[in-house]
Amino acid sequence: MPKLRVHNFPMSLDGYAAGPNQSVDNPLGEGGTRLHDWVFETRAGRAMMGEDGGEEGVDSDFIAAGDVNIGATLMGRNMFGPIRGDWGDGTWTGWWGPNPPYHHDTFVLTHHPRESIEMEGGTTFHFVTDGLEAGLERAFAAANGHDVRLGGGVATVRAALRAGLVDELHVPIVPVFLGAGESLFDGMAGAMEAYECVELVSSPRVIHTRFTRR
Amino acid sequence: MPKLRVHNFPMSLDGYAAGPNQSVDNPLGEGGTRLHDWVFETRAGRAMMGEDGGEEGVDSDFIAAGDVNIGATLMGRNMFGPIRGDWGDGTWTGWWGPNPPYHHDTFVLTHHPRESIEMEGGTTFHFVTDGLEAGLERAFAAANGHDVRLGGGVATVRAALRAGLVDELHVPIVPVFLGAGESLFDGMAGAMEAYECVELVSSPRVIHTRFTRR
Questions:
Q1: Model pTM?
Q2: Burial, A24: exposed, middle or buried (Cβ in 10 Å; 0-12, 13-18, 19+)?
Q3: CB B186 to CB A14 under 8 A?
């Protein structure tokens, strides 16, 4: 059975997976880039951005694993952009420039309908207005037997965990303190009873935790 | 200079270092023992309780390191016992039975004066009524050039971190979710700016994080 997988969804030591006040200038919220700095040190992270170099090792391996056997991506509106409400002039096409790092059908959950957008490199953004489970259904159809990656943001990952829809969850814990933002696990103890921690591995920079459904 | 050190002070993945509703039946709060189960699998943890066996390795090494060069212990009232207010009939002598695992002078912060209690095995409990810094002063004097270990509980560790008094902090992160209890790092981002994460090491059971003052 194809799976719904969350990969490289980092959290601070005080429990935040995004900083406060997400905006065009702070796509990950204030201080949120501190959760991702380690990615740019890795070979796989740089390759994702079309750059050479970077370190091999456990961090790079975990990043690379997030793309293996993924046929489609699903994400919440806040991960696609800072715009709230309707789509305005329709010029916003995501944070990632003309060639987003997905290279497959990517479904965005929103309350506001919009035509699909075909980007360079094989990514097509589709907009789903009838909820998480409908979005999942379309993503699995597009993935054509492969797995679906749930990209984020925090609210979408929490909702999917609460609904027991996530099959695999990889959370890198980064030794920084954000002080505010969107908590990943606060109030989630009940939902997380359905999951088992199957891997704990640390690099000098990041602790990788991986969960699967019991 | 002798140091103030916190060792083996575990936290759940949702950020709690103790469960809710500490009581005689639940010294670590409800569910709090889940933060300590791994200790009983280690050789050093069993030795602490006068038992043989247990696994060697990174977890055992971290537990053993908590006792090296420690000359005295300081703890908050809640770590010493579940009693609040005055000391009642004075029969409570801690959670640990007649031979506590300290084997040196151990200072308990309290608002309620009490005579010192000499236990078996070299542990003497002293009761300090004039605050954290006064307790530290007495503990360093008793440690006679060695370091002082700050045992807990959560409120005491947070107060000492806020005051910048802690020199070294070891927090094992345990992959469980308590859902409620006493948060270790919530609201502590400002205080933790004074600290640097100098070690991240994982066993299959526990992630060890270690901080020193910048």
A1: 0.93
A2: exposed
A3: yes
Q: How far apart are CA A161 and CA B192, in angstroms?
A: 30
pLDDT digits (tens, 9 = 90+) for B90-149: 899 999 999 999 999 999 999 999 999 999 999 999 999 999 999 999 999 999 999 999
In a domain, B59, yes or no: yes
Domain assignment of residue B156, given as a range: 4-81+96-213
With CB atoms and an 8 Å threshold, state whether B175 touches A200.
Answer: yes
Across the interface, do B186 and A15 touch by the CB < 8 Å criterion? yes
pLDDT at A1: 93
Over the stretch B38-47, which tens digit does the pLDDT of each residue have? Answer: 999 999 999 9
For residue B105, give the CATH number of its domain. 3.40.430.10
DSSP string, B96-108: T-SS-S--SEEEE
Beta carbons of A20 and A154 less than 8 angstroms apart: no
In a domain, B89, yes or no: no
Contact criterion met (CB < 8 Å) for A173 and B173: yes
Residues in chain A whose Cβ is within 8 Å of chain B: 13-15, 173, 175, 177-180, 185-190, 192-193, 197, 200-207, 209
